[in-house]
Structures are given as structure tokens and as C-alpha cells.
Design goal:
Blueprint lengths: L25 H5 L8 E4 L6 H8 L3 E5 L3 H12 L7 H7 L11 H6 L6 H14 L5 H18 L10 H5 L2 H6 L7 H15 L8 E3 L3 H4 L8 E4 L10 H13 L5 E3 L4 E3 L9 H13 L6 E7 L6 H8 L3 E9 L14 E9 L1
Parallel strand pairs: 1-2, 1-4, 2-3, 4-7
Antiparallel strand pairs: 5-6, 7-9, 8-9
The protein binds S-adenosylmethionine.
S-adenosylmethionine binds next to helix 2.
Length: 351
Amino acid sequence: MLFPETKYLDFKFPQPQYLGAKYIHRGWIAQFIPENANTILDAFSGSQSIAYMFKQLGKRVITNDFLNFNNVIGKALIENPGYTLDNEDIETLYSPNNSPEEFNLISSLFSGLFFIDEDADFADSFRSNVHRLKNPYKQALALTIMCRSMTRKVTMGHFAHTQALVYASDPNRVKRNRSLARPLKDLFSELLPQYNAAVFNNNKENISFNENVLDLLPKVDGVDLVYFDPPYCNSHADYQSFYHLLETYVEYWKDKDFINGTKRYNPKRYSGFDKNSEVILNFQDMFEKSRHIPTWILSYNDRSYPDIDTILNLIKPFRDVNIEYKTYYAGRGGKGSVAGSNEILLICNPK
Ligand SMILES: C[S@@+](CC[C@H](N)C(=O)[O-])C[C@H]1O[C@@H](n2cnc3c(N)ncnc32)[C@H](O)[C@@H]1O
């Protein structure tokens, strides 16, 4: 990158807590983004931490995730040209539940499971007021911060276990992680300034989608580079089991069953990248559908399925590939971040 755009680099993406987030690798990934790539698609954007880095580089960003709570972050921090939440908005969001018969999903499903009654009621009343904010970017920002607050309240930051309240009443755990015992409203209020400060306009028409990547690819044009960060099929690939509560909160499902101890919604959305039996065919389809995008960058980890040789064989009919390794030694890199494991980027250019 010869003449990098630097004026947006002072904005700070609020630190995510999301399995497989590449937040800590964003500087390393940025090195491989060519200056002349003007429009970039983040096809599996998750927490949006890499889409945000693209926005900071001054790119036009198209971002996408098949889960809507991630798309909502994309609306709030990538597509949003500058709307933040002011005191009047907060007063609206913190006002009493304006329709308790309609807005009681979180207390009816998750009270006594992930939250104490007061927090579940607050989540519902807040949700009942979101649509009273007239601007869609403000709505998205409100939901984004609330989702982040909810993950801070539960042990391990996900919802695939049923120990949240047990841990929240264990003094030793609370000593290590005070958020577990703090009211949801306090966590929201604390996060708000960070999120408001992260909103900026890079003067590009950025857009966030909520589609399966295989449906989206044929529809996007004018993309110079696509970044693929698919789930690691071997571990933690089922994002809907880990984050079902956030999707339920954003969607406020009326037409799902809620199953198992964690009350995950059912049926799930179809990914195609979370089961070993399907993933190879879907990678093949994804590469086929990306022919019209000149440069592809794929994040990969050497503990993933399928193995690197299989992936390379799938890409080679379409692109020449350079492999870049980043070895990390501390176990802090999100999914698969085991000491000595490699974070890999496959840089794929036209033949
Ligand atoms: C490894 S994570 C991406 C992490 C992201 N780069 C970040 O920094 O936070 C993979 C993402 O792919 C999404 N996903 C899974 N299947 C998908 C599909 N078929 N289409 C689009 N997104 C999908 C998951 O919801 C998850 O957020």
C-alpha cells in the first residue's frame, strides 16, 4: 500500500467480543490491501471489525453477514454516514415499555436463564422503544450497543451455555469480571460514548447486507476485492448456537420455536459453511460466483477444515495464490487462537 489514506485512522472500533473476530489482526491484514482497490466486499463480516478497517482506509465498503445482528452493526458503523445517539434518544430508549403485551420476549425466554428479571425487563422495554427513534442508523446503533452490553453480561460472551447466572452470583468470578453483576443499563451507558465516537463518514456509499454470501455474490458489481473470513468448520462454526439470543433480540422472532436448555430459535438460518459435509461444495460455488471480482483475500487458520491443500486446489483453477502467515503465540486471537497456530491469508490474484 503505497499512499495510504490516513485521516480516518484515529477513529476506534469498539473492541469486539466475537468468536473468530480478526480485530487483533486488522493491522496485519491492512498491509495486503492494494491502494487501487477502491470497492471492497467483506463477505462474512461478523463483528464488522475488518469492514471498519476498510472504511478507515477510505474504501467504499460493501459488508455482509447472514446473521442480522451483525448486519445491524454494519448499518450502525459501516453504512451510517454520521448519525449518533443524543440525550433525547437515550431518554426515549430508557422510557417505560410502550407495549408490554408485544414486547416481552426476552423476559419470557431468558429471565432466570441468562438475565435476572430487571435486566430482561430492561432489554424488552428498550426494544419496545427502538422504533420510536425515527432514523434507521440511530435504531441500528441502539441495537448494536445493546447487543454488545448483553454479551458483556454473560460469562464467555456467548449464549451456548446455561451457566450465566450461576457465574454472575459467584464472587470470585465477579471479582475477575465485574460486568457479570452490573445492570444492563449501566453497561449500555458505559459503552455508548465509545460507539458514538466510532461513527464517521468516509464520504463513500457504504452498504451493509444481510444475505447468504452465495446469494449476494452474483448481485454485486464494481467490487475490486473481496475478503472472505468464513467460519472455521472444525471449531465454533455454528454461530447461531453461540449468538442466538442476539439474533432473537434483533429479529424479535414471532414465528420460531425456542429449543434446548439455551432456548435457541428453531429452525436456524442456512449457512452452508458450518458443516464439514457441505463446506467444500459451497467453497467451490463461492469461488465460481466470485469470478467477476479481481482480487480475493481469504482468512484461514491451519486448524480449519478443509485443510489448506484442499482449499488451494479449489482456488487454483481461478486465481494465482500467495500465502502469508502470521504466527501468534498468545492465546488471545479468537477462534482457533492456540499458541503456535497460524493465522493465514491467501492472497488470490488474476492469472
Ligand atoms: C469468522 S466469522 C467473521 C469474523 C469477522 N471477520 C470479524 O472480524 O468479526 C464468520 C462469519 O460468517 C458468518 N456466516 C456464516 N455463514 C455465512 C453465509 N453463508 N453467508 C454469510 N455469512 C455467513 C457468521 O455469521 C460469522 O459472523
